[in-house]
Amino acid sequence: MKKRFLIFAFLGLLSFVGAAQTQLSWRLANFEVQNAGAELHFDVQVKANTATTYYRDLQVYLDYNTAGFGSSIVSGGHVTVTPGPLMDNFYSFVNVVDNTSSKFAIIIEADNEFSDVGSASAFNMMPTTYSTLCHIVMDVVDNTVVSGIAFDEVLMNGGQYYQLTSSVAPAKYADPSIFTDDFTNVILSTAYGTITYASASATPIQNCTVNIVGQGNTISNAAGEYYYTGLADGNYTITTSCSEPYTYVTDLGDLNVVLDHIGGTPLTGIYFLAGDVDGNSIIDLSDFNLMLDNIGGAVVGYPINDWLFIDQNVTVTNGVGTVNYQGIMAGDADGSN
Question: How much is the pTM?
Answer without folding.
Answer: 0.86
